[in-house]
Specification:
Elements: H1 8-23, H2 30-42, H3 57-60, H4 64-79, H5 86-98, H6 103-127
Helix pairs in contact: 1-2, 1-4, 2-4, 4-5, 4-6
């Protein structure tokens, strides 16, 4: 949804972070694989996962728009299997901290993502016959 706000390098880091997040709990779900594929389709055509360090995040994502776009996309990955486990929460908290996003701001983004997911579920029910 917000991948268009990211440049090619940022999209590559998004792919790398998404892959790392998917594996953080030791269980890869069908939903997580599917959302990773959706992210790849939304990225520029020749984007590949790009190595990064925690220290480089503030330089790679220098403005608020890119930071929030990254976090919203990654939160979507975390919730894709409807299980936002402790390992994923810790991963997201550390990522947000590396981007200079505090816990309150991360919670606001988390709340927004969960509201969006609830709306998607609601409309899916409306589409059923």
């Amino acid at each position: 949804m917000f991948i268009g706000n990211l440049n090619k390098d940022q999209q590559g880091v998004l792919l790398a972070i998404a892959q790392k997040l998917i594996n953080v709990d030791g269980q890869v779900s069908v939903e997580e694989v599917a959302i990773l594929e959706q992210i790849k389709l939304q990225c520029d055509t020749d984007v590949e996962a790009l190595s990064y360090t925690e220290e480089s995040m503030i330089t790679l994502f220098p403005d608020r728009r890119s930071k929030v776009s990254l976090l919203v996309e990654i939160l979507g990955v975390a919730y894709s299997d409807t299980e936002y486990c402790k390992q994923e929460q810790d991963f997201l908290t550390r990522l947000a901290s590396n981007l200079s996003i505090n816990d309150d701001e991360l919670q606001k983004l988390t709340d927004w993502v969960t509201r969006q997911l609830n709306l998607v579920q609601e409309v899916a029910l409306l589409m059923e016959e």
